[in-house]
Design a protein that fits this description.
The complex is a heterodimer of chains A (about 300) and B (about 200). Chain A has about 300 residues and is of the alpha+beta class. Chain A contains 9 helices and 12 strands. In chain A, the strands form 5 sheets. Chain A has a 4-stranded mixed β-sheet with strand order 10-2-12-11, covered by helices on one side. Chain A has a two-stranded parallel ribbon with strand order 1-8. The longest helix of chain A is centred in the first third of the chain and has 36 residues. Chain B is an alpha+beta fold. Chain B contains 4 helices and 5 strands. In chain B, the strands form 2 sheets. In chain B, strands 1-5-4 form a 3-stranded mixed β-sheet. Chain B has a two-stranded antiparallel sheet with strand order 2-3. The radius of gyration of chain B is 22 Å and the shape is extended. The termini of chain B are far apart. Classes of the chains: A alpha+beta (about 300), B alpha+beta (about 200).
Amino acid sequence: VPDSLDQTNKNKKNKSECSPKRRKFLKQMGILGAGVVLPLKNSKASTLSWEKFFQKHYQEMTPEDKKKVFARIQRETKADYGRDVTISDPQALKGVKFTFCLNLSKCNGSRYCVAACVKENNQSRDPQIQFIKVLEMPHGTLNPEKGNLYYEGKSIPQKNKFYIPVQCNQCDNPPCVKVCPVKATWKQEDGIVVIDYDWCIGCRYCQAACPYEARHFNFKAPSIPKDEINPKQAYLSNRIRPKGVMEKCHFCLHRTREGKLPACLEACPTGARKFGNILDENSVISKIFQRKRIFVLKEELNTIPRFFYYFE
Amino acid sequence: MILKMSPSFALIACCLVLGIPPKAFAEDAPEIKEGILRKEVQAQVLERKRTVTVRRILEHFPCTECHEKLKPFIKPFRGKDPGKKTHENLTFQHMEEIRECTFCHSIIDPDRLHLLNGDRITFDQVPDLCGQCHGIRFNEWNMGLHGEESGTWNGPRSSLSCTECHRAHSPRFPKMEAKRAPNFPRLGIPKEGEH
């Protein structure tokens, strides 16, 4: 018996001696392989480059790394879309929980919010990606499957219909974050679920997990007219997304973290949308919570949304 | 017959007919009081850092071009220029059973509105006037729950005056045309109504 033990120990020793060499070899091969695969000079700036390949996850980046990355994105946007943009990086606010409330008695389904969102967030025009979906619902149900997304409206609101705009609910128990295999999406301190577009591998698990259909996939590189590009961009929010990544509503974090209101709210002609900090007692949101009967969509799924609806 | 009467007598008679408190017809018109809100275009509302913005400034509508002060209804409505019929196209869909201009418009000074207590206000102080009947809405608007807002979510924000969104004489929010519908994903499934 002791002999066999000795042998196994020897084997282990041998393995431990061997494995670093093997790892080293594999690493070297990997780098060599990458060198073969990656073209040295790109035809299009946004295709995979050396810098992008070795870029770290957003949460692991040092300020210097960020500077380099933002400079690269600005350079690529200039090359691909011919527009000078600024990439900012607003940090999550402390003592703030962003909350959205929407008055369904007021919403008249005019889709002004959708148009403003598309413009603000540099969303692709073709193929079309829109963060906000406005559903035309018959009276007497809140089942989104009965809603019509493609209604045309010459004179809205129509009789016996009401309209529910649906966008990312920024859940406190987000199923999309749980399923991400590479942790490219996570929830930040002020309640916003963000995506690192450069870390996303485009597996679309989160799209399947989201019960609100809030996540959208870039099947193509977004096509935006040069004049309509919003040059005030942020790394985690509205910078032009590369091909093959997920995107979704982020409560306009590049605006709201600077104190502004989201673009959809400012565009709403009826004043149905209300935005604020739920931790502040005097905020509009707190007053709505005290006075109105609020509800969320698909409460039974225990996603704990941050987006509330109410009727008057 | 009214034309032969002295103006003051006519006014008192008018006031009795219309049931408006006689205070509104005091001969020596008092100075225009500031409403609850403000005199200027923007002012701070109560202790909240909220301002009221007026997009189209309508402090002073020149009603006196046709309607004379103190006796706006003694002269015919057409006023100085008989060809000018400004109120012909006016659609009035609000409290139709009352249908009385002087319910809101002041008789003493046709360029102003008046509240039920006789205070005269400018046209952009109109929330005070609407708030007399629509108290719940007025309170909600004051708190920021009603109406379109702009500004910031944590600091000063500004909301619009009532008549910026609601037309003064037919206040129901008008029907609108919706923006374009999203493209229907063509995966071999025909759109409803097509074949």
